[in-house]
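Backbone-to-sequence.
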């Protein structure tokens, strides 16, 4: 039997990249998936995530959402529950970066990155917990939160102050929610990807940066979005029945080296 039969999941930033892979994986395991993103077309090109899921026989809808806005997140969760009846899993993945150090970062850039990557996650976690607390437990769990952090929440991301600070905040937010809402039977974990190759343009795929990542990663290849999706599936499922408050590294051994 699929691992997520009859489950309902929201995945933010799921039009492209890691979020897209997670949404496809959860849907393939039986979940009804809400794709929450500011745009629907994938950066990689091709069909939208929701269309791919539907074509494979799954259930998915796309809801345009800017997680930096509380009202948008409130509407997202309300629409999800109105359509599917409950919310079992939320994967907070949407994120932006500026590739600027302290002196290069303008107040506007700082506010935008923190607004999406940290405040946006706060919005999504809070609204999810508000909903999950109203639900009857299933196998002793009312709901699961999965926050996509980063190895750069533990070590500095060279030349990208706002991004690193936001990811460090996500790691601590995850711990705090896990402890504060254990009595509510709400599970909260994070996943920290290492270098994952996606269709994202710009500095992330700079040849020198990729070469550094290959030399720095012990495993003899860099990561793929499906690697992160596998970890998300584990944390979204009943297999992770006594796992909460962790920051699961999916980095090919980067942080162990």
């Amino acid at each position: 039997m699929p691992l997520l039969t009859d489950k309902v999941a929201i995945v933010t930033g799921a039009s492209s990249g890691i979020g897209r892979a997670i949404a496809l994986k959860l849907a393939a395991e039986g979940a009804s998936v809400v794709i929450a993103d500011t745009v629907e077309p994938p950066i990689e090109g091709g069909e939208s995530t929701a269309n791919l899921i539907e074509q494979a026989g799954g259930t998915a809808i796309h809801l345009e959402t800017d997680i930096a806005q509380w009202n948008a997140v409130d509407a997202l969760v309300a629409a999800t529950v109105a359509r599917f009846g409950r919310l079992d899993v939320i994967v907070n993945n949407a994120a932006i970066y500026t590739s600027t150090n302290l002196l290069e970062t303008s107040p506007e850039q700082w506010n935008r990155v923190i607004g999406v990557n940290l405040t946006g996650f706060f919005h999504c976690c809070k609204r999810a917990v508000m909903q999950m607390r109203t639900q009857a437990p299933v196998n002793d769990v009312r709901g699961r939160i999965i926050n996509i952090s980063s190895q750069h929440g533990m070590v500095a991301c060279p030349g990208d102050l706002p991004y690193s600070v936001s990811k460090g905040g996500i790691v601590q937010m995850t711990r705090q929610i896990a402890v504060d809402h254990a009595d509510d039977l709400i599970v909260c974990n994070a996943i920290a990807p290492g270098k994952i190759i996606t269709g994202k343009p710009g500095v992330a795929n700079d040849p020198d940066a990729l070469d550094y990542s290959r030399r720095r990663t012990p495993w003899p290849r860099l990561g793929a979005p499906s690697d992160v999706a596998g970890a998300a599936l584990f944390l979204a499922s009943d297999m992770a029945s006594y796992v909460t408050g962790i920051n699961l590294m999916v980095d090919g051994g980067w942080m162990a080296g």
